[in-house]
Structure formats: structure tokens, C-alpha cells
Amino acid sequence: xxxxxxxxxxxxxxxxxxxxxxxxxxxxxxxxxxxxxxxxxxxxxxxxxxxxxxxxxxxxxxxxxxxxxxxxxxxxxxxxxxxxx
Length: 85
Fold this sequence. Notes:
By secondary structure, this protein is an all-alpha fold. The chain has helices at residues 13-39, 46-60, 73-82.
């Protein structure tokens, strides 16, 4: 299947901001997941999750068993987002 790109079409500004917002949300969720895998909870502020991300990401690099600690993340994330700090 061949895709033809129309370079003349410029997306509407609201479409762009929605994409950025969605990317930011999914990026933050990934940061939350990394924090949860390392610490096992999300009982911290959003700023703490942001601040710890780089260190925890490096800490998990090449840790082939980290997926084991993902269990329960979705529920914790949902609770965290309802009362986001």
C-alpha cells in the first residue's frame, strides 16, 4: 500500500495541540510506570515522578525482570490520576 503525503495540507492548530497533549499524557504515564516498577507505588507528587525519571530509567536499563513489577500499575495509575498532586 502506497501512502501519498499532501505537503500542502497544514493541520489545524487544535489538532496539533491535541497531539502534543496526548503525547505529553502518554509520556507522563510511561514515567509513572517506570516509577511504579522501581518503587511499587505512586503515592508521591507528579514533580517527584518527573524528577526521578532519568535516574530510575538508567537503573532499569537492561533489567530483564522489571516487567514482573508492573502488576497493579494500571489501577494505581487510575487512582493517582483521579487525585493527581
